[in-house]
Design goal:
50% helix, 10-stranded mixed sheet, elongated, alpha+beta, 13 helices
């Protein structure tokens, strides 16, 4: 059939058909490539790791330096959230009794001076609190993460470059470094992302991760600038609305992002409609490197979306032209199509009726054969019984009398004489 269609097309029509098909395939490839690229941003998929039932949402809050966010204010927000979830009868459905309904983390940017037995250097630092590495599963080269909730807060995680500068090796887990003469244990070494986008986002220099207590007490603390939470989202938009209303910071001092849906194509299309004003902001907020990277990917994906739409539009226009051409040069009418349809329907009915009749006849034949098989043994038994009745009965034979002993009888007669 395809060969017949291609034979009827002119050279120009074939070129248009092939170009439209190629355009469609490229558009699909861009959409798939964009979706796969999003999966590499682990910081944006905490909700999927927390629950596979799509009933939670990940929310990120980015504060200005003048917002005045503290550990106590975030702790108070957590207490309010716990009470609100209980009041709304939102409980955990996990079989694990210790399962949590939500998890959160906060972080602050700053600098610390780290000293080893080999060098003393100043690094950009991230002071973490809560379950930071649950939201940011950095690629470990060695060692392990630590939690901002640990009793001991004297751990540090270095990236590869910092490890080489301080020790000349990546295998340094368990080694001691000093921050303002306070010993800190190296918990792990992580891989630092490289590339043009990563460098522009703020990863062009080494980064170390310490507890917020260490950063605020022994380093240069720029203040808590990020709060992240994954929480139940029983109704679309519930989580983001709750955070906006209860975080306790003025709208001019905070930017709230719903990470769970930010890279959906519908969300990207909405952002695209704000083109030109999206980059304008009066908020004095400095985003951490992972949010800068996410915003960079948003711009890239929006561009891919525009290109994909144009690529899809081209074959769509060709299809409309083809349909119009086909309609204009059609060799049929609505009436002829109706008659053809009714004729085909009638033939289908006749065919169905014939099949039904054939099935009925087969059932009757099988029924007759079955009755005949059941009847034959009965008739045979009746005939056998009749034949037995017609056979003449044999007369009973009387037992033969034994001949009298003539000699004894003669002797008896002679004696009597």
């Amino acid at each position: 059939m395809m060969n017949k269609i291609m034979q009827k097309l002119t050279g120009r029509q074939i070129i248009l058909f092939v170009s439209g098909l190629v355009s469609l395939l490229i558009g699909i490839f861009l959409m798939v490539a964009g979706s796969l690229k999003i999966q590499t941003l682990q910081e944006q998929h905490m909700a999927a790791r927390w629950s596979d039932e799509n009933d939670v949402s990940q929310i990120s809050c980015f504060f200005s330096r003048s917002a005045g966010v503290s550990e106590d204010s975030l702790l108070s927000f957590g207490y309010q959230l716990h009470g609100a979830l209980e009041e709304a009868s939102i409980v955990s459905t996990s079989e694990n009794e210790n399962a949590r309904l939500w998890a959160d983390a906060f972080s602050a940017s700053g600098k610390v001076t780290v000293e080893s037995n080999r060098a003393k250097l100043e690094f950009n630092a991230v002071g973490i609190g809560g379950d930071f590495f649950l939201f940011h599963p950095l690629m470990l080269k060695s060692g392990s993460y630590f939690s901002g909730n640990d009793l001991m807060q004297d751990y540090i995680i270095l990236d590869e470059d910092a490890a080489w500068q301080l020790f000349g090796s990546n295998d340094i887990v368990g080694q001691l470094v000093y921050i303002r003469d306070i010993p800190h244990l190296v918990a792990g070494v992580v891989e630092r992302q490289e590339g043009r986008l990563s460098d522009a986002a703020g990863l062009d220099t080494s980064v170390v991760y310490v507890s917020y207590e260490t950063l605020s007490n022994y380093g240069i603390d720029y203040g808590i600038n990020t709060y992240e939470i994954v929480m139940p989202n029983p109704v679309e938009g519930y989580a983001k609305t709750y955070v906006m209303e209860h975080i306790g910071v003025s709208e001019n001092e905070v930017e709230i992002v719903e990470n769970t849906t930010r890279f959906a194509w519908a969300s990207l299309f909405k952002e695209l409609m704000q083109f030109g004003t999206r980059s304008m902001s009066s908020k004095a907020i400095i985003y951490p490197y992972w949010e800068n990277m996410a915003r960079g990917y948003e711009d890239i994906l929006m561009l891919m979306l525009v290109i994909a739409v144009l690529l899809f539009l081209y074959p769509a226009v060709l299809l409309v032209i083809a349909i119009r051409y086909w309609w204009k040069h059609r060799t049929w009418t609505v009436g002829s199509l109706w008659h053809k349809f009714t004729d085909k329907l009638e033939r289908l009915r006749e065919k169905h009726w014939a099949k039904s009749k054939a099935r009925k006849e087969k059932r009757e034949i099988r029924k007759a054969e079955k009755g005949l098989k059941e009847k034959q043994p009965k008739e045979k038994k009746i005939k056998e019984r009749k034949l037995k009745e017609k056979k003449p009965k044999k007369p009973k034979q009387e037992p033969e009398k034994e001949p009298e002993n003539i000699e004894l009888k003669g002797e008896e007669e002679n004696n009597e004489k």
